[in-house]
């Protein structure tokens, strides 16, 4: 009987050791996949000091959270992006202050990766009924305000995602590619032929200073230093390279001489 029990114990031990081998082999594949994922897609519409909600689009099914500061524990509001359209609406718990920043986070529930945008709160939009007056002078003022509002809302930029090609300057041109999978990539061409990769597989984040003036912070693959890129959108499919004060300036690109660059999608 003792010999029989010893033999059975040996078989159980052998079976247990053999069963653990496949689980160990799966670990490297899971880690590699998580490391290459950049994060969910996220766009946020303009936010005003009298806004009661924040709206936009994100990767379908993403969890959306609005915070007053980066990584704040409490939320100003939360919602889930539609599983069919990606649209979301977050109801705000309190009134926002003009020129304050709010942090809008999108988290992919499957991969647990997140992406956020910093949004500057704009002054409350003037009500049309409040600007309508009987006097001629006040009517003229109301007309000017209405015209400027229409110009600001003539187009909307949701995300830089896509391929953008520049003008040609001194025989050189550029191509920028923004992707949620491969990050930010920038290439330099001369006479139509690629001569250098300026940025590759960089992680990036977008800070919309205004609906048309954006700051993009990116970190190239293998680098610990972040860099900034400023864009001024003149349409939904065109932007100019500007400085931090939103002024068009001549910028060097690799070996290409400094030039003023305009990119189209």
From TrEMBL:
Q: Which Pfam families does its entry note?
A: Big_6 (PF17936)
Signal peptide range equals: 1-25
Keyword annotations of the record: Signal
Domain Bacterial Ig stretches: 43-114
The identity of this protein, by name, is Bacterial Ig domain-containing protein
According to its UniProt entry, this protein's organism is Levilactobacillus hammesii DSM 16381
């Amino acid at each position: 009987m003792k010999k029989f029990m010893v033999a059975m114990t040996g078989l159980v031990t052998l079976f247990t050791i053999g069963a653990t081998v496949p689980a160990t082999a799966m670990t490297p594949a899971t880690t590699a996949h998580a490391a290459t994922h950049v994060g969910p897609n996220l766009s946020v519409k303009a936010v005003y000091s009298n806004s009661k909600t924040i709206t936009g689009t994100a990767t379908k099914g993403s969890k959306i959270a609005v915070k007053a500061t980066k990584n704040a524990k409490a939320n100003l509001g939360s919602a889930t992006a539609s599983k069919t359209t990606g649209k979301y609406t977050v109801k705000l718990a309190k009134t926002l202050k003009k020129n304050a920043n709010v942090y809008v986070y999108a988290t992919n529930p499957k991969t647990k990766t997140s992406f956020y945008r910093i949004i500057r709160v704009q002054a409350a939009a003037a009500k049309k009924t409040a600007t309508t007056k009987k006097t001629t002078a006040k009517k003229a003022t109301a007309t000017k305000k209405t015209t400027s509002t229409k110009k600001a809302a003539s187009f909307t930029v949701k995300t830089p995602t896509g391929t953008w090609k520049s003008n040609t300057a001194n025989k050189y041109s550029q191509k920028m590619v923004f992707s949620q999978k491969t990050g930010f990539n920038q290439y330099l061409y001369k006479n139509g032929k690629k001569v250098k990769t300026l940025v590759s597989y960089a992680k990036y984040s977008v800070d919309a200073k205004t609906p048309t003036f954006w700051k993009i912070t990116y970190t190239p693959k293998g680098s610990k230093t972040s860099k900034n890129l400023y864009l001024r959108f003149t349409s939904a499919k065109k932007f100019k390279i500007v400085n931090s004060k939103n002024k068009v300036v001549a910028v060097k690109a690799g070996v290409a001489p400094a030039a003023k660059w305009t990119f189209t999608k």
